TrEMBL record:
The lineage of its organism: Eukaryota, Viridiplantae, Streptophyta, Embryophyta, Tracheophyta. It comes from Nymphaea colorata. Residues 1-26 form the VHS domain. This is VHS domain-containing protein. It comes from the Eukaryota. SUPFAM superfamilies: ENTH/VHS domain. One of its GO terms (molecular function) is ubiquitin binding.
Length: 26
């Protein structure tokens, strides 16, 4: 699920870069 991906991304990258990663996924 996308939710699991979101959690994994947040854990690996952190909160400050989560927005950038979201843009990359979008």
């Amino acid at each position: 699920d996308s939710k699991d991906v979101m959690k994994a991304v947040k854990r690996r990258i952190g909160n400050r870069n989560s927005k950038i990663q979201l843009l990359a996924l979008m």
